[in-house]
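Section 5: illustrative case.
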């Protein structure tokens, strides 16, 4: 929201997009898919293994609560990431900040994959885990709004809703990839292997995915609307100040709507996975398979909603 507010009406500066439609759709989609993959990898790990690895000195219930506490840290960081990357997105451009947010998320996720557990480095393990989780939240906070702007500011007339769909598909695909990989590991590894080293594989894979995402995004040109704003000297010195002074009401309404949406989503996916496996007696494979099946409907709903708006 910060980035949009600093430039005013995005219809005011029509320009032919410098990037091809395929490149824009791919870059906006793949970035959010990778970032949400990283985010959901931790969510699934928190439900299955983070507690025993990083909080083994406590009871099973305390382990679960501690794991979910570390999961929640990222939600405190996401608004800060949105404000930070939004501010610089209006100052230095969409492309640079999107590259930075993707790199931040990828580095934090990969480092979690190599972070020693409590048995190796003691209390430093959960402390460093919280720091890295905070970094994940910052990265995701800067990603989603920026990717939406990347898509819509490059969209030709009459196609903004269609182009804006691609970043929104990212969460569904990221969730499917993360849970699908954990499902594969659950089906091929025994419990000891999974807790010892298997759970780290999805985190380490993030390094490869981020390299792919960076390659795609570095090929992009700056969005034409932002380029025109620079040419007309329309950038403001403190975009975040303008946001809070002039657009605080829609900002709060938008934030509240997302709280409602994602509170329900994460209760339905992360907590239900932990509860289903530990309390209801479902196997990891069965419940992960159910979640992978369910998220297909989320992707279909996102695509269908665009057709309704258009």
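Designed sequence:
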């Amino acid at each position: 929201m910060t980035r949009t507010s600093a430039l005013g009406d995005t219809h005011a500066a029509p320009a032919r997009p410098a990037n091809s439609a395929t490149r824009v759709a791919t870059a906006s989609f793949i970035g959010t898919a990778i970032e949400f993959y990283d985010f959901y990898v931790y969510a699934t790990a928190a439900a299955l293994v983070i507690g025993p690895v990083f909080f083994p000195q406590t009871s099973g219930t305390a382990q679960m609560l501690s794991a979910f506490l570390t999961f929640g840290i990222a939600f405190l960081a996401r608004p800060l990431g949105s404000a930070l990357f939004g501010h610089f997105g209006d100052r230095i451009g969409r492309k640079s900040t999107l590259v930075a947010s993707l790199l931040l998320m990828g580095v934090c996720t990969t480092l979690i994959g190599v972070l020693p557990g409590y048995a190796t480095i003691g209390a430093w393990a959960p402390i460093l885990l919280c720091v890295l989780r905070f970094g994940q939240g910052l990265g995701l906070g800067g990603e989603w709004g920026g990717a939406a702007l990347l898509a819509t500011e490059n969209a030709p007339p009459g196609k903004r809703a269609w182009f804006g769909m691609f970043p929104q598909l990212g969460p569904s695909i990221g969730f499917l990839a993360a849970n699908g990989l954990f499902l594969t590991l659950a089906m091929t590894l025994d419990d000891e292997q999974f807790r010892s080293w298997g759970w780290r594989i999805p985190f380490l894979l993030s390094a490869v995915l981020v390299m792919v995402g960076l390659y795609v995004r570095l090929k992009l040109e700056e969005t034409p609307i932002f380029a025109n704003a620079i040419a007309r000297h329309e950038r403001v010195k403190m975009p975040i100040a303008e946001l809070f002074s002039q657009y605080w009401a829609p900002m709060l309404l938008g934030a509240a709507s997302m709280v409602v949406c994602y509170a329900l989503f994460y209760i339905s996916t992360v907590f239900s996975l932990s509860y289903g496996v530990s309390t209801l007696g479902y196997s990891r494979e069965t419940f992960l398979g159910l979640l992978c099946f369910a998220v297909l409907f989320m992707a279909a709903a996102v695509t269908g909603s665009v057709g309704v708006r258009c």
